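Appendix C: a fully annotated inverse folding record. The material below is reproduced so that readers can follow the format used throughout the book. The structure is listed first as tokens, followed by the designed sequence.
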């Protein structure tokens, strides 16, 4: 017996040593020619060689390294782990509610702290800035505001402009969220709150179906998923629709079981998601609603209560959608978001064959889902759990339907926080994956293998592999956020007072700094000024005669021009009104390190 224990101990040491070596080897890849550098460059589907090395190293080094590290701890931790598992399974109803609150608090704090530590409370794309501008317009009690004359001086990327008036072209739900932040002074807080919803919902569903301990595992999968964790730091519409669609799954389950008002709740939360991301909502929910329709045809559901409840729930969202479109574009059926295209016959800016869209959009994002959801282990778990029951099949069909939406547009979407257009898939895939893990454990038990070994290997690969993956990408996001912090500090520290700075496009400006150019960013334009022009410093585009035309709009402000500087200064500020220039401020710099 002593010999057997000794052999087990040496096996654990060997597994741990090999696991540590594989993890160390991953970080050693920084010394290779491509390194592990993550950059943010156009087009969206481009990846640096260092980023590709990171993905390859994660799959072939971190995942097996995590498995070995997990297995090395089985012998010492199996007994306390079993006790903890049994304690979780024995939780009372009150303790389960307390656990749900704990999951919500953890998810919220991770999102909120991550936003300030890694994103420095700054956007990662221009549409976040445009959405906030739209929220500011709504908070002022208007749908459109008068922009500058000349219009070309105003940063209008992702804005809807008509007859010199403008606002964000984003959907109503996103603008309302920002308007609430403006009116309450809480800024992006509502997005961090929304980020906590999927983890709680997934834990609740898994608890009801598999038990409280499995609910905890399901919540862990959501929190560890890079595409869930990193997106949660942002202020994108996807956070709102992801939260609403997660709740819609709960309402669907409750409606099938209890009926009555739950059909109304299903329609209501579906409508909330629709107001944030209409097309994605319709495609994601299509399998669920088609299943409901089939059950109605088969007379398995009460037609009046079901259809009446759904119509009643959807009605507020549909009315708000049509009324908002009419107020902004003048046409209830023409959303500002698609007003630049021929609606509804053409939703793409460029014509492309179905095969091209399938490869460049659907295939690309399917790959991104495989990389960013839970990596190769996630692909395995989803594959094993997909056929568990009707719910897992519907969830997987929802993911496939959303991927099918890629056939109708040509916007691949960024992948710096995962495949951003498919963010709603994370909770659905987590639910399928936890069923897959449960099935693997059941198979191990039937084969008389230690189920703790399966759990330790899988969780070890996820905690180690995804923990490192998440942190490295979060640090990369922080480097691009430092670009915007440095640019803002350069202007604020110049001591301009109340002023208007005429500048080239934002991307042209920050690209003057070599360190910034190396990192890159998807924020390509200056943030739109507040609709009331409340800031002391307003940055607008420069152009022939723009200063003279803008002076009547800003009579109490000095005017400056941001122009290229002489080495080593990337640019400098010149007064346009002939007054002495302000004291020179330090040139913007950013600390970059090997990643």
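Designed amino acids, in order:
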């Amino acid at each position: 017996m002593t010999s057997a224990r000794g052999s087990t101990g040496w096996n654990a040491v060997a597994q741990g040593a090999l696991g540590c070596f594989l993890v160390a080897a991953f970080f050693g890849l920084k010394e290779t020619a491509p390194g592990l550098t993550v950059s943010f460059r156009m087009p969206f589907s481009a990846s640096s060689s260092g980023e590709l090395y990171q993905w390859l190293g994660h799959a072939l080094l971190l995942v097996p390294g995590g498995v070995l590290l997990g297995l090395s701890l089985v012998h010492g931790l199996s007994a306390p782990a079993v006790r903890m598992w049994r304690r979780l399974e024995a939780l009372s109803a009150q303790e389960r509610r307390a656990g749900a609150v704990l999951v919500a608090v953890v998810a919220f704090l991770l999102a909120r702290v991550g936003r300030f530590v890694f994103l420095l409370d700054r956007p990662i794309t221009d549409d976040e800035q445009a959405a906030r501008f739209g929220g500011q317009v709504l908070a002022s009690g208007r749908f459109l505001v008068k922009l500058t004359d000349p219009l070309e001086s105003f940063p209008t990327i992702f804005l809807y402009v008509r007859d010199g008036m403008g606002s964000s072209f984003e959907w109503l739900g996103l603008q309302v969220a920002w308007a609430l932040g403006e009116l309450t002074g809480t800024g992006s807080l509502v997005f961090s709150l929304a980020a906590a919803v999927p983890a709680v919902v997934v834990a609740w569903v898994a608890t009801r179906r598999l038990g409280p301990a499995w609910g905890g595992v399901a919540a862990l999968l959501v929190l560890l998923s890079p595409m869930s964790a990193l997106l949660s730091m942002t202020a994108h519409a996807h956070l709102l629709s992801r939260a609403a669609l997660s709740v819609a799954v709960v309402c669907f389950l409750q409606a099938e079981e209890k009926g009555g008002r739950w059909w109304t709740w299903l329609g209501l939360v579906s409508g909330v998601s629709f107001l944030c991301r209409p097309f994605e909502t319709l495609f994601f929910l299509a399998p669920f609603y088609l299943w409901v329709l089939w059950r109605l045809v088969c007379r398995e559901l009460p037609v009046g209560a079901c259809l009446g409840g759904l119509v009643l729930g959807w009605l507020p969202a549909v009315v708000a959608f049509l009324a908002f479109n009419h107020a902004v574009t003048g046409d209830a059926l023409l959303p500002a978001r698609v007003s630049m295209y021929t609606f509804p016959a053409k939703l793409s800016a460029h014509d492309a064959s179905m095969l091209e869209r399938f490869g460049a959009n659907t295939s690309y994002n399917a790959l991104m889902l495989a990389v960013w959801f839970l990596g190769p282990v996630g692909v395995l778990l989803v594959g094993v759990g997909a056929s568990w029951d009707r719910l897992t099949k519907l969830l997987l069909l929802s993911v496939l339907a959303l991927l099918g939406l890629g056939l109708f547009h040509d916007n691949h979407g960024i992948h710096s926080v995962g495949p951003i257009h498919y963010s709603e898939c994370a909770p659905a895939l987590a639910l399928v994956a936890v069923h897959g893990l449960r099935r693997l454990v059941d198979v191990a038990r039937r084969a008389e293998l230690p189920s703790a070994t399966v759990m330790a290997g899988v969780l070890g690969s996820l905690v180690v592999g995804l923990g490192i993956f998440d942190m490295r990408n979060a640090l990369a996001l922080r480097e691009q956020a430092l670009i915007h912090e440095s640019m803002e500090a350069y202007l604020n520290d110049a001591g301009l007072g109340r002023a208007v700075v005429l500048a080239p496009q934002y991307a042209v400006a920050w690209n003057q700094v070599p360190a910034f150019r190396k990192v890159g960013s998807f924020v390509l334009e200056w943030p739109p000024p507040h609709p009331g022009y409340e800031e002391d410093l307003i940055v607008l585009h420069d152009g022939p005669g723009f200063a003279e035309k803008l002076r009547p709009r800003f009579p109490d402000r000095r005017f400056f021009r941001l122009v290229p500087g002489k080495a080593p200064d990337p640019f400098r500020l010149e007064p346009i009104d002939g007054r002495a220039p302000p004291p020179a401020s330090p040139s913007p710099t950013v600390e970059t390190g090997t990643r």
